[in-house]
Amino acid sequence: xxxxxxxxxxxxxxxxxxxxxxxxxxxxxxxxxxxxxxxxxxxxxxxxxxxxxxxxxxxxxxxxxxxxxxxxxxxxxxxxxxxxxxxxxxxxxxxxxxxxxxxxxxxxxxxxxxxxxxxxxxxxxxxxxxxxxxxxxxxxxxxxxxxxxxxxxxxxxxxxxxxxxxxxxxxxxxxxxxxxxxxxxxxxxxxxxxxxxxxxxxxxxxxxxxxxxxxxxxxxxxxxxxxxxxxxxxxxxxxxxxxxxxxxxxxxxxxxxxxxxxxxxxxxxxxxxxxxxxxxxxxxxxxxxxxxxxxxxxxxxxxxxxxxxxxxxxxxxxxxxxxxxxxxxxxxxx
Length: 334
What we know:
13 helices
């Protein structure tokens, strides 16, 4: 039996008004997250991943940001129609977020246990003593050693990995966990700790049956963690599929470029040079209505300048947005 849809984003457009002009950060985005699944949102810096996440939680600063159109449906409610007071009932309760750098997310002047306890007192009305006990339980759940001691530590007294675990614990201090958004949760950590954090997130997700939106530019993290993948480029969704479809049969020129640049790619074994994607990310201020990957794509022509392509469905669950999808797939398989 297929899992129900927990959250859907429909025709989302997010713009930022700057002195130089209007930055179209996310354009015509549609995506779904099912109950209990991990969806990875991937792409290089500036492609719109974090803006997408902040749109869900209504954390886009307005101004300069504007959610120009669309719906964010979560458990039957359009989050974009809620008042600021109403959306507060979802933040940190049904929708939690782990930010990229825990040192800037944890308050440096309060002990870690106090910050966790505050979540319980605010959202569940617990007394301070009970909330502190629950904080220690959560620190133990996320596998922080000596949780009673660490609850009395300040953030700067913890290692980077422990701070990130504390942030995960805070995200789990929810009375009804539904969706956890992890924005580049392993970027500032060394490789060994990265693997531990990813294993922890996967284990917790399965244990309490929550959904995970994983935002990353690291395709290795995606391969290890995700069920499905959405590839974004310059504010647009360009390919979507299961993790197996994306890694075993990538079909958009940008996805191919991302995977070809991985050191683990078998074609580079014994080589001292990796393949790069030529060119630069386009300026979102001057981007037209065509395919944003046009200036870096070997297949691009005038047609790509004029319009963004319709979806090409390669197989069930696997779609890409490219005018020359058939040609790309034929040549890739040669």
